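Quarterly update from the structural biology core.
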Amino acid sequence: MRQIAVAVHSNNVPGLAEKVERFVEALARRCPDAVLLVGGYWGHMKEVVDAALRRGLRVVAVLPIEREGVELPPGAVVIRSGCEYRCRSVIMVRSADAVAVLGGGVGTAIEAFMAYAMGKPLFVLAGAGASTDRLREAYPEYFDERRVVKVVYVDDPERLAELVCAAEGGAAASFG
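Predicted structure, tokenized:
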């Protein structure tokens, strides 16, 4: 069983919903035993949850204290973290075997940096139309001189799912 944190925008980015759908569909084909970890049920996170549950994937939502009352669909596991947004992200990323960044703003970028700092295999969808698209330009391979894990940028959501499914803990550097 692979636990995959999916970091994605909490609002709506034009064109990203279709990429989210393609990623989840490919993920369900490639690793049907995967458990997706998300940080909520709004914006594109809601699309990840709904698409995953439709395809029989297991979903765990680690909710921040500010949004603990959000209703999730049957089948989703809810963790009321008691933490604010960034703290809940630590729980989500720390619990993951790999992290897929599908596109987002500063919160999604923070989750990418957390994954890097924790040595988690880190895969970023390039061309998502979100602020995280700038990560590739600023950090083409590594976020700093420690070279903890190679950040893998992928333009295609299906290829991203394939790489995430194949990732072993700490082995992101072998993909590209």
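Helices lie at 16-30, 43-54, 85-94, 106-117, 134-138, 157-166.
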